[in-house]
Amino acid sequence: MSQTVSTTLLAASLLTLVSCGGPQHAVTEKYFLVATNVKVPYWQQASAGLYRAAAQFQVKAELVGPDTYDPKAQHEQFLAVLAKKPTGILVSVSDPAVLNADINDAIAQGIPVVTVDSDAPQSKRLAFIGTDNYRAGVMGAKIVVGKLQGKGSVVVFTIEGQTNLNERLHGYKDIFETHPGIKITEIVNMQGDPRIVFDKTKELLEKKAKVDAIVCLEAIACPEVADVLEREKAAGVVVVAMDTDQRTLDAIQKGLITATIGQKPFSMAFLGLKLLDDVHHHPLAPLDKNWSQDSFAPVPTFVDTGATLIDRSNVEQFVEARNSATAK
User: Fold this and answer.
1) Rg (CA), the chain
2) 98, 75 contact by CB (below 8 A)
3) Range list of H helices, 152-297
4) How many C-beta atoms lie closer than 10 Å to residue 163's C-beta?
5) How many CB atoms lie within 10 A of CB 295?
6) How far apart are CA 259 and CA 4, in angstroms?
7) DSSP code of 118?
8) Reported CATH class of domain 133-262
9) pLDDT digit of tens for each residue in the chain (328 aa)?
10) Spatial separation of the C-alpha atoms in residues 143 and 175, rounded to whole Å
11) Which of 31, 33, 86, 102 is most buried as measured by Cβ atoms within 10 A of its Cβ?
12) Same fold, 7-131+264-307 and 133-262
């Protein structure tokens, strides 16, 4: 079983490290967060956490990655970062099959790697910091079940091959299996392209397909769904989104999206840099050991940063808290 450490415990241990006077940080220390689709608001929140931690430790940090969902481009960006011999790398893995070898190469070169948001569990990464995506799927599924009163047809938008999205879908399916009146009638591979979501939603409405609920497992999908519903003046569709894109929050306030599962990208990046910094100043020997199978490992295997259900009852409070946390 995976060794799970709570965010609170990890943060406490890292704060203890700082207070007891660890080694002096050097001006040459630099950490990178390699993501994909970096222009979306999700990664702006992550960058705020990354830079907040960097400021506390007085080190350098940078968010990099392609502007669209592009695993090959992320692979190339990872290699470019690796060539700079960084102090440590955080990476949100778009496709483990593409990035596993890159992560293992970094570890072999003595550069610690921690995955955030989306994992590569078969790689030699030291730890994963992010959402318990299965539980996030369960959370969303329970909303659908409650709103549909246990009966209806569901369409799901996802990206095939992405580990975190597969885990969310697993959570949805497990809950729906206990409510046989609810069926997933179609799973759409949006391929990281919001245009596919827009066109597919419009097609479903135009051909009057029976769609009682739409589930989005990825952040950029449901704003497109809401756009189509508003244009077509469609009502009565339960929509459960993922993450806190401003368009998603606006659609919740308008009643176009029922609820969203808000992750904590700020926390992921903040804790990720702190863990990498700890490993840099207190090196693991050997770095490529399978620490997840060591009962006395000094690093966690998985840190669950949690998720928040956001609907019309608390969306304004969320916006206020987000603006405060990300203010420069």
Assistant:
1) 20
2) yes
3) 163-177, 194-206, 222-231, 246-254, 265-281
4) 19
5) 5
6) 28
7) S
8) alpha beta
9) 444 444 444 544 444 444 444 456 777 899 999 999 898 889 999 999 999 999 999 999 999 999 998 999 999 999 999 999 999 999 999 999 999 999 999 999 999 999 999 999 999 999 999 999 999 999 999 999 999 999 999 999 999 988 899 999 999 999 999 999 999 999 999 999 999 999 999 999 999 999 999 999 999 999 999 999 999 999 899 999 999 999 999 999 999 999 999 999 999 999 999 999 999 999 999 999 999 999 999 999 999 999 999 999 999 999 998 888 777 6
10) 10
11) 33
12) yes
Number of residues assigned to the chain: 328
What whole-number distance in Å separates Cα of residue 215 and Cα of residue 126?
Answer: 32
Q: Which residues contact 105 (CB under 8 A, 6 or more apart)?
A: 82
- Taking the C-alpha atoms of residue 76 and residue 61, their distance in angstroms, rounded to an integer, is 19
Q: Which two tokens stand for residue 241?
A: 């989104």
Burial of 317 (0-12, 13-18, 19+ CB in 10 A): exposed
**How many C-alpha atoms does 307 have within 13 Å on its Cβ side?**
23
Looking up tokens 């409405």, which residue turns up?
A: 205
What are the extents of the domains in the chain? 7-131+264-307, 133-262
Q: Quote the DSSP letter at residue 92.
A: -
Q: 7-131+264-307 in CATH: which number?
A: 3.40.50.2300
pTM of the predicted structure, to 2 decimals: 0.83
Residue 11 has which token pair?
């943060």
* CA distance linking residue 84 with residue 167, whole number of Å: 33
Burial grade of 313 (CB within 10 A; 0-12, 13-18, 19 or more): exposed
How far is residue 217's CA from residue 91's CA, in Å, rounded to a whole number? 20
User: Percent helix, strand and coil across the chain, each rounded to 5?
Assistant: 45, 15, 35
Q: What is d(CA 265, CA 272) in angstroms, rounded to the nearest whole number? A: 10
